[in-house]
Every structure is written in C-alpha cells, then in structure tokens.
C-alpha cells in the first residue's frame, strides 16, 4: 500500500476541504488550526507525488488529479468505516460467545449446571461446547481453538497452560447384578483388579489415565473392552461383558435403579481424581470465561470463590 494512502486522517481532511471549499472551514470542522490543515495537505501531496489543491485568495479548489483522489478517498473512507463497524460487532460477539471443550464426564454431569447458571447471570451469552477426551481437550486449548477447557485425570503440566481444580471425583468398579462380584463384601484388591478383564475407557481419557496410574503398581490394566464413551462402558457392563470402571457421576442413575452394582475396592487402590479447568497462560481468561470458572470453582470456608489467577 502506498504510504500516503495509509493516512486516513489526511484523506478525511482532503474530502472536507473539497466539500467545504476552504482550508479554514475544514480546520474549524475538525477543531484544528488552518496552518495545521495546510501542512497535512502539503504532506499528503508530497507522499502521493501529485498536486491536489490550488490555493488562491478566493479559496481552495481541487486540481483534476485532486478530484480523482477525492473520489477514491471517499470509497476508501467508507470501506474503513465498514471495517470499524465490523470490528465493533466482532468484539461484541467475542464478549458474548464462549468456546469450551470438556471431557465426557464434565460435559454430561457438571457443565450443564454451570452453563445454566452462566445464562441466568448473562442472558446474552452463547456457549459452544466440544465434548472430547481429556487429551484432545488439552490439544484444543493449546491450539487456541477454545477459550477454556475442563479435563479429568492425572495432572499434566504443560508450560503453555494455566489451570486450577474445580471439582473432585472418584472412579468406581461396577458390575451387572448377575456378576459374581455383585454379592461380594470383601473389597477387591489391587492385584485382583489388575488381573480382571475390565470394560474401560479408551487411552487418552481422564478416566483411563487414573485407572492406569492406580493399577500400575499391580501390573497395569487388562482391558476386555476399550470404549470411547461412558455410556458405551455402562451398556457393555450391563450386558455382563465384565466389570466396568467409570466415574461415580456417570453411573449414579444406574446404581440408584439397581441396574448396576458398585463393587467395594481396597482403599489402597487410589481411584480419586481432580477435575481441572485449563486455559492458555499467554492470553488469560476473557470475562465470560472467568465468569464460568467462578461458577465452577470451589468456594472457600466463607462461601466466596477462591481467587482466580492467570
């Protein structure tokens, strides 16, 4: 782009001179001095390499070249105004639109309540949600495709990300009522659980990460089936495919209805986990994301939201 064309302020003054017929009247419109306007016009002519104005005692008039430049300047200024209006609209939409990625457990059992509270406090807000396993949530946040992510599982410290815990959860071992473990009163030990063919979530999910970590001292997980959603694990477990391992949140309804039975597990097998919010450290949190995180965040003893940093 030519250096002179980039000076929209000078072009706006030139159009005013053309419309009003004098440097003085253009100066008064923009609350400038006449010498200041004259200097801007001289600089514009020098940058364009074209004489634009003829100044005489009767006023200021455009040269033929100046008339052409003014016509082009009107179009450019109108385009700049449209661009400014577009930018204003996009900024307004950005303050209302929150992009979130969440793991399956969070998306199905926690985020709906948080989102409902967010809409009550910010009726104009719009939340778009990608439901992914925890590894893919992290990928989306790092790539800047979403404003805020919620993940389960073990803490994976990525230098690009800030994070904070928002909830805790535990995994449970469940079986169909017909399974021998359904009548078991003695907790299943770590070695027993590691030896059992289990129905489990796929690698990369937060549920699987916690299970892998918990059973690593006993030889690891022996999957009978690896499935890509909690509902699929529930269905396979109900069919009697084997013991399933899932979030307690994901099987609460089935346990209450008696469709599945929780199996006691030795407390030495740590099946607890934290659910964390994650976001890009470099960009921080937009106001709407900060509001959602405040709704999800744990409260201190006085009921106030703990401070959010980053």
From TrEMBL:
InterPro entries: LysR_HTH_N, LysR_subst-bd, WH-like_DNA-bd_sf, WH_DNA-bd_sf. Pfam families: HTH_1, LysR_substrate. Keywords: DNA-binding, Transcription, Transcription regulation. Residues 7-63 form the HTH lysR-type domain. Coiled coil: none annotated. PANTHER family: HTH-TYPE TRANSCRIPTIONAL REGULATOR, HTH-TYPE TRANSCRIPTIONAL REGULATOR CYSL. Belongs to the LysR transcriptional regulatory family. This is LysR family transcriptional regulator. It comes from Aciditerrimonas ferrireducens.
């Amino acid at each position: 782009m030519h250096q002179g064309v980039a000076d929209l302020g000078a072009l706006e003054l030139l159009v005013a001179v053309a419309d009003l017929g004098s440097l003085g009247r253009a100066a008064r419109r923009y609350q400038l001095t006449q010498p200041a306007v004259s200097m801007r016009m001289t600089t514009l002519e020098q940058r364009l390499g074209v004489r634009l104005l003829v100044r005489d005692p009767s006023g200021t008039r455009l040269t033929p070249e100046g008339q052409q430049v003014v016509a082009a300047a009107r179009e450019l200024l109108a385009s700049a105004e449209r661009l400014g209006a577009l930018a204003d609209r996009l900024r307004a939409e950005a303050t209302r639109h929150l992009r979130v990625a969440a793991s399956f457990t969070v998306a199905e059992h926690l985020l709906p309540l948080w989102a409902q509270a967010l809409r009550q406090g910010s009726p104009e807000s719009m939340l778009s949600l990608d439901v992914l396993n925890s590894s893919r949530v992290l990928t989306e946040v790092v790539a800047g495709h979403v404003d805020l992510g919620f993940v389960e599982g073990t803490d994976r410290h990525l230098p690009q990300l800030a994070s904070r815990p928002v909830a805790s959860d535990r995994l449970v071992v469940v079986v169909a009522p017909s399974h021998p473990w359904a009548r078991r009163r003695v907790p299943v030990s770590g070695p027993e659980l590691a030896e059992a063919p289990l129905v489990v979530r796929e690698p990369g999910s937060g549920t699987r990460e916690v299970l892998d970590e918990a059973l690593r001292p006993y030889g690891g997980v022996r999957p009978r089936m690896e499935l890509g959603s909690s509902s699929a694990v529930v269905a396979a477990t109900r069919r009697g495919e084997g013991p399933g391992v899932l979030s307690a949140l994901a099987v609460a309804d089935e346990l209450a209805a008696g469709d599945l039975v929780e199996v006691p597990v030795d407390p030495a097998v740590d099946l607890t986990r934290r659910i964390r919010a994650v976001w890009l450290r470099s960009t921080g949190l937009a106001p709407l994301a900060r509001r959602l995180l405040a709704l999800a965040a744990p409260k201190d003893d006085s009921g106030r939201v703990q401070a959010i940093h980053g």
